[in-house]
Design goal:
The radius of gyration is 26 Å and the shape is globular. With 609 residues, it is an alpha/beta fold. The protein has 18 helices and 25 strands.
């Protein structure tokens, strides 16, 4: 078979000039990550295309110089290359015969189809699987002479994942859409309708939408929408109203979305806590029902979601004393873990559409294992397929590098661990009192971390270097993994995180004069051990940035810069301690002049294996 593809789709039919609406949608899809963009509009005599490598702004300039025909119907796309290099030939839309389409996903059998279609006389100019899909649909249309029948037939021929927005040259009043696994929504407006991979593409124009499901086809005109199954029986769908605010996809005077989203973390954490325990810790049993019997927990995710799971693994084993393993989803789906009746599998994904995580969930369900999903998107595939779903309250996160969504995931996992600790009688009344007090103050602690005035000074110790190391022990090592990921994602500095005690087993050979080393010291029981490791790198010339919650007995000769962290409960410390690492990564990237919200080669949604 993330997130079924990282590209973005927008289509429009209505009363306004399609070029303007499509460009507006494409600008709102930029956060997904892409390398080229294009649009197609249905003119009086034919469908005309404009495609451009690079940013949507380059496409806009091209259209201003060479205008497309006036039209009120069209499709657009931002492409993240999977088949073929980023260039205008491989960029979407693709046009062949009667068909012009944009595509998210992967057509797994495109080579076989391509060979067959070439024998039928089709000539391909791109390296993409998407052009093959267009030809396949055109061939079906030649046979059926009916748009929906052709789509249903092509659906059975195409293997893999796809979301299509389609123009038929001789159907001048409609856009057609179909999907298999890849997300697709249809927006409803006044005498206008939209098709998009993400509601943010049309949120500024309409909050009313329906979700196109697997094995469904749609015909969209400016004043009506009809949805069908593969047997062409019409399906009635009641439109939903999005709870997202159009301001959530605006920077609101912040320099970058990432900075805006870090500043939203106090509210996000508060909202997440209140959604799970609106009154008291007694509410945890409602949010996490029937966990008593599970003593073997598997946590599965990708990237930052996996690192959040690793924090939970550490807490569950250390403080609850139950067996817990955390897995990278792309590996887990090919492994053979041991399951029993007391196994619970927890899947974490911001979008709820991450391809590897979805595949892992489906594998686990084949064994009858109970599943939990922690996601941010209501109605996402993961939320629908898991036995139980818990929603983070992060709202729309636009920056490719996750910040507030990670914090909300960590918050849920911390509350889940607290609930397990209560079930297993691992918390004293004093522990519980401390947790209650700190939960109410958690947003304030986060806000103080964000408002620290000396990030510029800290970042100057790092931003001119090409290599940085993070070290820590216990939970500090796990937090270092996420801190290191943030730094490398957006600043392009080569950054690695290591267990502090592992450095001497080879990696310390890379430490030279002025090498930045970021050291985390939250673990009180490992304090002396970690300080010993810090002294080892300092003795070899490292420039040490120390993040510590207790400055007692620390001499100034073991660090160059120091950041004092608040001291919280062992269940909540990680939520606060990650915030300064996010701010440090952001400040470093800004000092280096990097494109922070859309780092090169990365995408918000990872929907391909």
């Amino acid at each position: 078979m993330e997130e079924i593809n990282m590209c973005g789709i927008i289509a429009y039919t209505g009363k306004t000039q399609a070029v303007d609406m499509l460009l507006a949608g494409l600008f709102h899809l930029e956060y997904r990550g892409y390398d080229s963009s294009g649009i197609a509009v249905l003119g009086k005599n034919k469908i005309e295309l404009r495609k451009k490598k690079g940013k949507v702004e380059e496409l806009k300039k091209s259209i201003l110089c060479h205008p497309l025909p006036k039209s009120t119907i069209g499709i657009g796309h931002t492409r993240w290359a999977t088949h073929g290099v980023p260039n205008e030939i491989n960029c979407h839309p693709h046009q062949i015969g009667n068909i012009t389409l944009v595509h998210n996903g992967i057509i797994e059998n495109y080579k076989t189809l391509k060979n067959s279609l070439e024998k039928q006389g089709y000539v391909f100019v791109s390296d993409t699987d998407s052009e093959v899909a267009a030809a396949c649909l055109d061939a079906c249309y030649k046979e059926e002479r009916h748009a929906l029948k052709a789509m249903a037939k092509a659906y059975q021929l195409l293997e893999g994942s796809f979301a299509f927005a389609i123009l038929f040259e001789d159907h001048k009043e409609a856009i057609y859409a179909m999907r298999k696994h890849s997300p697709l929504v249809i927006g409803h407006g006044e005498d206008e309708n939209f098709v998009a991979s993400d509601i943010s593409a049309f949120l500024q124009f309409s909050k009313k939408f329906i979700t196109l499901q697997h094995e469904e086809l749609a015909e969209i005109k400016k004043d009506n929408v009809h949805v069908y199954n593969l047997e062409l029986k019409e399906i009635f769908k009641e439109p939903e109203i999005s709870l997202l605010d159009a301001n959530s996809v605006q920077k609101n005077n912040y320099d970058h979305f990432m900075l805006k989203e870090i500043h939203e973390e106090p509210q996000v954490v508060m909202d997440t806590i209140h959604s799970i325990m609106p009154n008291d810790v007694s509410d945890l049993s409602n949010a996490f029902p029937n966990l008593e019997k599970f003593n073997n927990i598997h946590i599965v995710g990708c990237g930052s979601a996996m690192y959040a799971g690793m924090v939970a693994k550490y807490m569950m084993e250390q403080y609850v004393r139950i067996r817990c393993e955390c897995y990278c989803a792309s590996e887990y789906r090919y492994q053979t873990p041991t399951y029993d009746e007391n196994t619970l599998a927890v899947f974490i994904s911001q979008s709820g559409e991450t391809a590897d995580t979805l595949a892992a969930l489906r594998k686990v369900k084949e064994y009858g294992v109970k599943t939990y999903a922690i996601v941010n998107v209501i109605g996402s595939a993961l939320s629908k397929e898991a036995d139980h779903v818990i929603y983070t309250q992060a709202g729309k996160e636009v920056s490719v590098a996750t910040t507030k969504a990670y914090c909300s995931q960590l918050c849920i996992l911390s509350l889940m661990t607290i609930h397990l600790a209560l079930l297993h009688n691992k918390l004293s009344s004093e522990d519980l009192k401390e947790i209650k007090e700190e939960l109410s103050l958690l947003p304030d602690y986060i806000e103080k971390m964000i408002d620290y005035p000396y990030y510029e000074t800290l970042a100057q110790q790092i931003s001119t270097h090409d290599n940085v190391f993070f070290i820590g022990r216990g939970i500090d090592y796990i937090l270092s993994l996420e801190g290191s990921l943030k730094l490398k994602e957006i600043s392009y500095i080569h950054s690695e995180a290591y267990p502090a005690g592992e450095l001497k087993h080879g990696t310390i050979s890379l430490i030279e004069d002025k090498t930045p080393v970021i050291a985390l010291v939250n673990e009180e029981r490992l304090y002396e051990k970690t300080m010993s490791n810090i002294k080892e790198v300092k003795a070899r010339g490292a420039n040490v940035l120390l993040f510590v919650k207790d400055m007692r007995n620390i001499s100034e000769d073991v660090y160059d810069e120091c950041f004092l962290l608040p001291s919280l409960s062992k269940f909540l410390q990680g939520i606060v301690s990650i915030v300064p690492l996010q701010m440090l990564a952001y400040t470093c990237a800004k000092q280096r002049g990097c494109e922070i919200d859309q780092p090169r080669n990365l995408a918000k949604s990872v929907t391909v294996e």
